[in-house]
Amino acid sequence: DLGGDIRCFGAPFKGREHWVIGLQNPNMVQNSAGSEVLLKLKITDGAVATSGDYQQFIMIEGKRRSHIIDRKTGTSTEGLSSVTIITDNATNADALATAVSVMGYEKGLELIENIPGTEAILITSEPEFKLIKTSGAERYIKND
User: Fold this and answer.
1) Is the four-CA dihedral 98, 99, 103, 108 of positive or negative sign?
2) Which of 37, 59, 65, 89 is the most exposed place for a label (fewest CB within 10 A)?
3) Which one is predicted more confidently, 10 or 130?
4) Which pLDDT tens digit goes with each residue over 64-112?
5) SS (H, E, C) the chain
6) What is the pLDDT of residue 81?
7) pTM of the entire structure?
8) Rounded to 5 degrees, what angle do the CA atoms 73, 50, 130 make?
């Protein structure tokens, strides 16, 4: 675990089939300990990385400004509160999470859909906080 980047390998504890990774609800984050889990992922020998505007940000004129900067505009990224990438390599997952944050959800989804073995779960910025997934992401979501 490297603060939003997790690599799971080996067998989970006590005969469990998968490692379980919680995704924070970006609309309900107060601090690391007081965050609501939006959904859980089941991972076996893979990596998960999340980038977003809800942990490292500053409020300017009532608007949350991310630490992720779009080099084309010179300002913080907008439109996505959370970008989670699931793939086999933690370095790639981290780089793609940041890239999709800058690209936005439409271009970002198109990119991820064209990378074999890679899925994404995106959450749009407030006020909607809409959940958007790539075509194969559902298989990683733990339903219980």
Assistant:
1) negative
2) 59
3) 130
4) 676 676 667 766 767 688 889 999 999 999 899 988 988 888 999 999 9
5) CCCCEEEECCCCHHHCCCEEEEEECCCCCCCCCCCCEEEEEEECCEEEEEEECCCCEEEECCEEEECCEECCCCEECCCEEEEEEEECCHHHHHHHHHHHHHHCHHHHHHHHHCCCCCEEEEEECCCCCCEEECCCHHHHEECC
6) 80
7) 0.81
8) 75
